[in-house]
Amino acid sequence: MQWKNYIAAIADRGMTQKQLADEAGCGQPAISDLASGKTRDPRSSVGLALIRIGQRLGLDPADFSESCRSAA
């Protein structure tokens, strides 16, 4: 998963990092680290929550998979 791009897409839909962190059950610094690329892999519970949030906002997680990046 390209978390940096996924979080950017969520932000483009109007969610702040703080709102995203609150809903995902983690701290805003964890979201910031993912958004900046400092951290590449969140805890599984956070990752699943981020996927659900993105899907609710109309994102398709498959569009952000590592294999899509390799194919581009």
UniProtKB/TrEMBL annotation:
<dbReference type="InterPro" id="IPR001387">
    <property type="entry name" value="Cro/C1-type_HTH"/>
</dbReference>
<dbReference type="Pfam" id="PF01381">
    <property type="entry name" value="HTH_3"/>
</dbReference>
<dbReference type="GO" id="GO:0003677">
    <property type="term" value="F:DNA binding"/>
</dbReference>
<feature type="domain" description="HTH cro/C1-type">
    <location>
        <begin position="13"/>
        <end position="64"/>
    </location>
</feature>
<protein>
    <submittedName>
        <fullName>Helix-turn-helix domain-containing protein</fullName>
    </submittedName>
</protein>
<dbReference type="InterPro" id="IPR010982">
    <property type="entry name" value="Lambda_DNA-bd_dom_sf"/>
</dbReference>
